[in-house]
Structure formats: C-alpha cells, structure tokens
Specification:
Length: 185
C-alpha cells in the first residue's frame, strides 16, 4: 500500500510540475517579451515591455544637425538596488521615406540609477549613463533620464537620451509599450 501511495504521489508531483512548467511558458510568452533575434554585436534584442522603448531622433548637432531617425531601445539591467549595470541595445527602424535618415544601431554599457525625490504618484525617475559604439556615431557616450509609470492602471514610461560621438550628438525621445502602474526599468 505504501508503494502505491508513493507512486501516486510521484505521478501527482510530475503532473503538477508539468502544469507549472506549462504555466511558466504561457506566462513568458504572454508577458510582452519579444524575441527579435540577434542584432548589434550579436546581443539579444528582446526585453520585457517595461524595458523596451520606441523612439525617434528629435534633434542633432554637428554632422547630425537636421537628421531624423527611428529606433527601438532595449534595456538589459542586472541585479537590484539603487544603481544597476545595464546594457543598452539600439536597433534602427525604417524612416518611412524621410530625408536625412539616421539609422542608429549599436550597444552601450553603463549604469541605470533610481532618482530620489519627486512625487511617488507620478512614477519613479531614473537616469542612464553609458558608453559604447553606435553606428554611425562611432565611439559614443550616453546620458539620459526617464520616468516610470505612476498612479495609473496602464501607462507608458518615458526616456530621453543624448548620444554624443566625435562628430556631434543626437537627442532621442522614446516611450515604452503600455505597462502597469508604478512600473520602471
């Protein structure tokens, strides 16, 4: 009798693990994570909605004055705490026939830091600083600020980044996909 009970318990446990594994896979596929393959420097470009931004070049200086561009920005942060290491992947998107199309693509490494202060109902602020290579800018530094979603059912995070290379700089404004309230990278 004990052998039969152990066998049923083992089968029940295996069934539960199968259900949990299936639930985990269903959750992962519906969580907003998008697999878009590999891109700049062989890095993965998928990230959860809270770490995926769609943006455009809103201004440029030097060689990039008057340029326009569209891109996706993926934030890959690790760890926890006030300041975390982050890898930023930039993926160019089509400019839809606009002149002076600047197709930004590359990878940056740096830090993502929570900003203190402010009204918590408006979402947590964060700053981004990093360096790396971005085509066509070359060796690039990045400095930016963002704002998480606040006291709202669903909203968007914002991100504003200045990329500076040897021949000038570009300013990017970007929004995340729709996320729940009180979300930040």
């Amino acid at each position: 009798m004990a052998r039969r009970t152990r066998k049923h318990a083992a089968l029940a446990l295996a069934g539960c693990l199968g259900l949990v594994g299936g639930a985990c896979n269903a959750t992962a596929s519906s969580s907003g994570t998008r697999g878009t393959g590999t891109g700049a420097h062989g890095s993965s470009q998928s990230a959860p909605n809270r770490d995926t931004f769609v943006g455009k070049v809103v201004s440029g200086t030097g060689a990039y004055a008057g340029d326009f561009g569209r891109l996706r920005i993926y934030l890959h942060s690790r760890g926890s705490g006030r300041t975390r290491p982050v890898k930023v992947v930039l993926q160019a998107r089509p400019c839809k026939g606009r002149a002076h199309c600047l197709r930004l693509a590359g990878t940056l490494k740096g830090d993502l830091a929570k900003r203190s202060g402010g009204n918590p109902d408006t979402g947590r602020g964060f700053s981004l600083a990093g360096h790396g290579r971005v085509a066509p800018l070359g060796k690039t530094t990045a400095n930016g600020r963002g704002q998480g979603s606040g006291f709202i059912a669903r909203g968007h995070e914002t991100l504003s980044v200045v990329l500076t290379g040897p021949s000038g700089s570009v300013t990017i404004h970007a929004l995340s996909k729709a996320v729940r309230g009180f979300t930040s990278p």
